[in-house]
Automatic annotation (TrEMBL):
GO terms for biological process: translation. The keyword Ribosomal protein applies. Residues 47-65 have a biased composition (Basic residues). Transmembrane segments: none annotated. NCBIfam families: S21p. This is Small ribosomal subunit protein bS21.
């Protein structure tokens, strides 16, 4: 990852960095690894995320004609 600071505008570079980290899921990964997660909880979380992803995909699908 490479963020360039243009014209000493560190605030803008920092904002760009945060946006890039958010997009790549780094913050989510850090939060997930900060505590131990039991295998049963992990399975439920994965199922919940998959269900959420499926529902989102269904919203953007074209209706069958």
């Amino acid at each position: 990852m490479d963020i360039k600071v243009v014209g000493n505008d560190v605030e803008k570079a920092l904002k760009t960095l945060k946006r890039q980290l958010q997009k790549e899921g780094i913050f989510k990964e850090i939060k997930k690894r900060s505590f131990y997660e039991k295998p049963s909880e992990k399975e439920r979380r994965k199922q919940r995320e998959a269900r959420k992803k499926r529902m989102k995909a269904m919203r953007f699908r074209r209706p069958a004609v």
